[in-house]
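Page 47, continued from p. 46.
Same chain as before, 577 aa.
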Amino acid sequence: MWTYASQYKLAYFYVIGAVILSETANIVVPLYYKKFFDLLAGTQTLTADERTSGLVGAIVAVLIFHAIGWLLWRSMGVVHNWLQPSVMADIVQSAHASLHRHSYAFFLDNFAGSLVRKVGRIERAYEELTDQLQFRYIPLAIMITGNLVVLYLRHYLLAVILLVWMVVFIAFNIWFSMWKMKYDAKRVEIDSEATGVLADSIANAVTIKLFTGFGHERSLYQEVTERLRRMQMLTWNLGEITDAMQAGLMFVIEFALMYTAIHFWQRGMLTIGDFALIQGYLVGMFGKLWDLGRAIRKTYESIADASEMVEIMEASPDIVDARGAKPLSFQGGGITFQNVYFSFNKTRRVLKGLNVAIEPGQKVALVGPSGAGKTTITKLLLRFYDIERGKILIGNQNIAKVTQESLRAAIAVVPQEPILFHRTIRENIRYGRPGATDEEVIEAAKKARCHEFILELQDGYNTYVGERGVKLSGGERQRVAIARAILKDAPILVLDEATSSLDSESEQLIQQALHELMCDKTAIVIAHRLSTIMEMDRILVIDDGRVVDDGTHSQLIRHKGGIYKNLWEIQAGGFVN
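Result:
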């Protein structure tokens, strides 16, 4: 957190300096109250006018020091109110960036709701920690130091008693808070789990209704929130124990100091004003010490709250650019998979020595049974995962040696289940090329055959599509995704079941658009609906992580007993001669 705060050193140190000077002024004030009460008690032989003048002078001095403290505190507040939000914004922006540096697999393994919660927690943790430092720890340190010095000057034994008590008080709070931290961390962990369960339930609300699963989901959420309730109650009860111990220790020090002061007063070593001085210091110190226990607890709780996000920010992404990686230079090169092996885990090998060479500008379809590795091939091309062995080349460039951003900028993808932002249709299409004009957006929509249905919407291109595009039908979402890919105009095109959500009429409407989209591009098309790939330059049949057949449609349907011929006969054999 200091990494971010240190970017505003001048403002930060002004805040700290103002707090120190303000608290120093508060230490001086009781000295004038001591003088005030000594004058009232008549410990000095003075005339009535001299005594009155002294009393007024003491009160004026108190007013001046209070005014100094007030001015410092108010100016510090203004600077602090600018500084803290600035640092918090930097932290959440960095957290956001660090999340997106992580790999595709990272987001498969984490709930979106939990990640959002962790970003919020680290922001609040910074606010809490800096508040404790600036408004609890530093003022308390100044007060303790000043009190010890003043009491030592009155009598060293008073300072020794206070010092020993302070060591015991602070040591107890630190030890207890550190011991309690494991329970705070567990509470945070369960809280993240509860958030994940809730987010998962909300995201799948339609599925819950379709399968009448509310009772099951309610049980899941009740179970995790009940564990959270028990852990929350435990941590709060431990906090009550701390409060009880602190109150007892405060009773002890007040009795010890006042009892000692009485003996010194009997010997003429202290005055009535010294009792006012001691009591003033105790009252001020008790308020800050009571907050110290809470501050220490909040500090450790904040550390626990922030630790999950800090671990993510400090963790190295699974997929990183190679040292000295250069941007991909696409000059019409083909795509080559050389003896590629890949596994999702030790027991699930997906690709087993895959060898594929796609010529520049060639349109290649990947077909085969589910789980054969077709979609995995495209994900490896996008470098969502790193391969175990072999190479993937674009032209003569190993994709593991170029920057990920330049690699993905050269590839336009229309996924099987396109996910849209909860933004306008215009913004979703323009995401393919953020600098595109409105006319270019509309032209891409026309080519994707979605211009007509967009105009029928109440707000047209300014219609918000809902979270993940839920306000549009599956076919409408897919056509918007195709428009986005058309606008991107990347040299490599990947269509992963791009027409799977379209009815036959809609599919026919956009087939020409897809052919136009694939023109002059190297295209990889995954399709279970074989009628959509009959005109591909090549069809690769994938099975068990290998290419088991390769040819055009007319060639493959002549392979007796071949996988493609069997698939074709299942889908169209009864209707096509």
